[in-house]
Amino acid sequence: MTRLRKIGIVLLCLLCWQAGRGEWTKQSTNTLAWLHDIYFFNENKGFIAGSGGTFLETTDGGKTWTKRKNFTDDNIRQIYFSDEYTGWLLCERDVFNRGQNSISYLMKTTDGGASWEKTEIGDLGRTRITRIFFNQKGKGFAVGETGALFELNDGGWEKSPWPVRYKLLGGAFSDDTHGAIVGAGGSVYFTEDAGNTWNAANLFGDKTARLNAVFFFNRQNGWAVGAGGKVFQTWSAGKTWREQNSRVTADLFDVFFANTAEGWAVGDEGLILHTQTGGNVWVVDETKVKHKLEKILFVGKKGFAVGFGGTILVNGAAAPVKSDPADKPQLLKRNKN
Fold first, then answer.
1. d(CA 69, CA 298)
2. What does DSSP assign to residue 128?
3. Among 88, 173, 198, 333, which residue's Cβ finds the most Cβ atoms within 10 Å?
């Protein structure tokens, strides 16, 4: 048997094995809401948020979800907790019924989500906020249309210098000081000083790509995904990004890596991509759904993906998430400050 043929067989087996691990099952839910985000405190307690103020809660690791009584009728776009008590929701008013109010606003909890209080983002005007993100010390940023960038200072959100005029769609920190923001028109900016300054990154590939989300596993290694199946990877803390071949053209909306080798991305028409080679090879996991998927994460051995039409997909055969101090916190500790 020739060496080339042996290599081909090994690669074929690897691809088949990868595809075989993609066992995603759809959970039964009592909602048809458009689910936008999912977040877990630990392996048992988590939340899902979506359209019309939909807010679901689980205390058994996602086996069952209970719908909370609405505390807003607006769309909840994102959930974030800096510790087990302090959390934020990014909400969006109906553009036709908002009156003089801004489209976007925040809700904050200091009791672990038992109650929520509305917080407006100052000087926002008609600008839509698309993403909030925080570093490991709780310093927060909000990004949005026309390059909007706001920073959380002394309890209030203040406008910061905008690095670009393209729509910004995603942001993430890997630690206290290093992070990146991404968006339309190939916009990728990195920081090394906790967001005091943002610098343009080097992009090798489609320099006009619309990037929807970014994820860092540690300070050096990160991935960004976007429209048209675009996937980019960095090995340099966000300074330089190189395009990977996803082998799909569907829009991708979120990405998550359990370690530097194994990761997933989700997108249109129920698409879930899976890699065990750091993104050098991506394969499609079978989902049997055609709804748009917006968010994916793994907690312990279990993975979740949520999206349109009340869709919640679960993968219970996933590998354990490696603990890393620079990773996104999934098991949150109480803030001592």
1. 26
2. P
3. 173
| Cα distance between residue 206 and residue 214, in whole Å | 16
pLDDT at 122 > cutoff 80: no
The whole-chain average pLDDT of the chain stands at 88
Instruction: Report pTM.
Output: 0.87
Report the alpha-carbon distance of residue 77 to residue 57 in Å, rounded: 16
Question: Of 264, 147, 237, 166, nearest to 208 (Cα)?
Answer: 166
CA 265 to chain centre: 10
CB 152 within 8 A of CB 133: no
Task: Name residue 201's amino acid.
Answer: A
Six-digit token pair at 64? 């069952």
Asked whether 190 and 216 are in contact (CB, 8 A), the reply is no
| CB 294 within 8 Å of CB 35 | yes
- The pair of three-digit structure tokens given for residue 126, joined into one six-digit string: 């008609």
What 157-166 contacts at long range (C-beta under 8 Å, 24+ apart), as own/partner pairs, is 157/106, 157/119, 157/121, 157/122, 158/122, 158/123, 159/122, 159/123, 160/195, 163/189, 163/198, 163/199, 163/200, 164/189
Q: What is the CA radius of gyration of the chain?
A: 19
Q: Which helix (H) or strand (E) holds 188?
A: strand 188-191
Q: How confident is the model at residue 32 (pLDDT cuts 50, 70, 90)?
A: very high
Distance CA 101, CA 74 (A): 13
Q: What is the largest CA-CA distance in the chain?
A: 73
The sheet that has 25-26: what strands, in order across it? 25-26, 311-315, 302-307, 293-299
